[in-house]
Specification:
Layout lengths: L1 E4 L2 E4 L14 H11 L5 H16 L7 H11 L8 H5 L6 H8 L12
Antiparallel strand pairs: 1-2
Helix pairs in contact: 2-5
Length: 114
C-alpha cells in the first residue's frame, strides 16, 4: 500500500502506516484521512496534533484512548461530555490507532483503548 501526493508515491507498511514519519505533512494527513473514509474536523486536527506532540516531544509516547479522554476533558470545554464516544465520532475505527495513522506515527501494537 502507498499514498499518492503531488505526483510522489509515499511508502507505507502493509497496514497503511508511514514507513518514514518525515514524509508526513498536513496535506498528506488529508490524503490518508480520505483513504480512511473520514473528513478531518477542527477537533480531529486537535487529536492529531496532540498525538504528534506526545510522540515527538514525550519520548515516543502513544497515548491510549483512556489517556486521550483524560487529556481532552480539560481541552474540549465546549462539549457537555468528553468520553471515548466523543473521540470515536472523529475516528470511528479507533481514536488512538486511526488518528495515529493519519498523524504519521508508527503502528502501535497494544490492544484496545482501556
Amino acid at each position: 500500500m502507498s499514498y499518492q501526493l503531488n505526483g510522489n508515491t509515499i511508502e507505507t507498511t502493509e497496514n497503511g502506516y508511514l514507513v518514514n514519519h518525515e514524509d508526513w505533512s498536513e496535506e498528506l494527513a488529508n490524503v490518508i484521512a480520505e483513504a480512511e473514509g473520514i473528513t478531518l474536523s477542527e477537533k480531529a486536527w486537535e487529536v492529531i496534533n496532540y498525538l504528534r506532540d506526545e510522540y515527538f516531544n514525550n519520548n515516543g509516547n502513544q497515548p491510549n484512548e483512556r489517556n486521550m479522554v483524560k487529556h481532552f476533558k480539560s481541552v474540549w470545554t465546549d462539549l457537555e461530555k468528553v468520553d471515548a464516544k466523543a473521540l470515536y465520532e472523529h475516528f470511528p475505527m479507533g481514536p488512538s490507532k486511526q488518528a495515529g495513522k493519519i498523524a504519521g506515527l508508527p503502528e502501535t501494537k497494544r490492544k484496545g483503548g482501556y
